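Per reviewer request, we include the raw input and output of the structure prediction for the construct analysed in the revised manuscript.
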Amino acid sequence: MHIALLKGGISTEREVSLTSGAAVEKALLTLGYKVSPIDVGHDVAAQLSALKPDAAFNALHGRYGEDGCIQGILEYLKIPYTHSGVLASALAMDKPMAKHIFAQSGLRCAAGDVFTKAQMLSGDPMPRPYVVKPLNEGSSVGVTIVHEHDNFFFDATNWHFGEAVLVETYIAGREIQVAVLDNEALGAIEVKPLSGFYDYEAKYTDGKALHLMPAPIDKARYDEVCELGLRAHQALGCRGLTRSDFRFNEGGDNQFYILETNTQPGMTPLSLSPEIAAHRGISFEQLIERLVKGARLDG
């Protein structure tokens, strides 16, 4: 079976995708697949047309690889692909739209709204503490947590994520993340950054965060957050592998709040979904094979 491995790309998460792609390529070769790696650029459709692969493994992260764009190209070329389809990918990547769907499905979300850059420049858009986010980036790119006494001002000059800004109430508590594979919650992991929050550096630098698998919460809470992760996956119409990120507001209202669902979870040595799968007895190679065997078109 001939697999086109899509990696790299042109998003802010390019380097992470290259690392994921290297790990996936090694696994695919170990499993005996013929692999054609593609560092995705504007000529990706022509490259895929020339290769005529049996399927594509999508190891892209961020915009254009995780938001329905590459999925649309693959649909047009009739090449089955891993992970979620066009609509689910687009919905999950658009944070305000995903929040709307989560809320309609009974999942708790942080209160928030979308503001313009001009509104952000006029002062705090809501009472502190709050979180500033791009509408459609991953890996915590562009995220800032504004605490009560921080000397914070919105720097529009260095905001490279469009005219709109998502601002949400900061939810204190523990970082719990749930992996779902083929409509089954695999488990929940707790992440503890050694300083600050679970930002880009903490996610992809060894020694910057502790991974506690399984998440050390009582069984009822563990089962609850796993069910919430599955509900988020299904509410968006996802398939294959997802990872949903929650805050457990322990000591506050003791509830779980969903932050987002990632339709292209990382496959790096520090990524959480493979670690959760391994705890369930699914090796990295087995995880990759299940994703390949689940590759399909939306239509």
